[in-house]
Amino acid sequence: MSFLSRSRRRALQTLGGVATMALCGCTGAPNPFQAPSARIAEVQLLNTDAAVHRFGLRIETDETVTYERTHVVAPARKVGTDETVTSGDSSTNDSVTAEPVPVVSDGLPAERGRQTVSVEVVGEGEHESVTYEDEACYSVVVEYQSGTLNFFSSRGDDKCPDSQS
Questions:
Q1: How wide is the angle at C-alpha 118 spanned by C-alphas 116 and 123, nearest 5°?
Q2: How far apart are CA 10 and CA 163, in angstroms?
Q3: What CATH code is carried by the domain that includes residue 137?
Q4: What pTM did the predictor assign?
Q5: Which DSSP helix (H) or strand (E) runs through 5?
Q6: Which end of the chain is more exposed for a tag (fewer CB within 10 A), N or C?
Q7: For bias kind Polar residues, which ranges apply (predicted)?
Q8: pLDDT tens digit string along 82-132?
Q9: Phi–psi pair at 142, nearest 5 degrees
């Protein structure tokens, strides 16, 4: 057997393995043959800025608006104090608990599908969104500080009783 034949055979074997992994979903990428079926269990709005802000929260399920409301959120404070929580506090110190942090769960869509969560800081011009397409159920935290919106999410499968994953 020539060197060229062995190389071609090895390339075909590798390609076949990669194709098999992609079809069974082993790569972690969304399966192109399966319809998106994500769900949003809750959205927390964390305002680490010094001022009260209005947040426009919009959720689209398969490009159809399924939730759209405005929430007024006071600056987050360390529990039991008048100290304002800063962005670094919540991520670096587990003992810091912020309040108020509105948890939006009532009225969120129960439908599964491609979920796009969009947040606008009303009157500030800040707007960001994130899209979920896999089979998981998500808890989403939206943090706002000084003109920047950040999204953090975790699988909240226990918060969706009909969870598929």
A1: 165
A2: 41
A3: 2.60.40
A4: 0.68
A5: helix 3-24
A6: N
A7: 83-96
A8: 665 555 544 434 444 455 678 899 899 999 999 999 999 999 989 999 999
A9: -110, 120
Q: What is the DSSP letter of 84?
A: B
The burial of 140, by beta-carbon neighbours within 10 Å (0-12 exposed, 13-18 middle, 19 or more buried), is given as: buried
**Could you give the number of structural domains in the chain?**
2
22 & 44 share domain:
no
Helix (H, G, I), strand (E, B) or coil at 46: strand
Q: Partners of 143 in the beta sheet?
A: 46, 150
Q: Are residues 3 and 83 in the same domain?
A: no
Could you report the per-residue pLDDT of 139-148, keeping only the tens digit for each? 999 999 888 9
- Residue 16 structural domain: 1-29
For β-strands 137-145 and 77-78, DSSP reports them as unpaired
What is the amino acid identity at position 137? C
Query: What whole-number distance in Å separates Cα of residue 149 and Cα of residue 49?
Result: 11
Q: Is the peptide bond before 100 cis (omega within 30 degrees of 0)?
A: yes
The answer to whether 72 and 54 are in contact (CB under 8 A) is yes
- How many Å apart are CA 45 and CA 126, to the nearest integer? 14
Q: Classify burial at 124, counting beta carbons within 10 Å of its beta carbon; exposed 0-12, middle 13-18, buried 19 or more.
A: middle
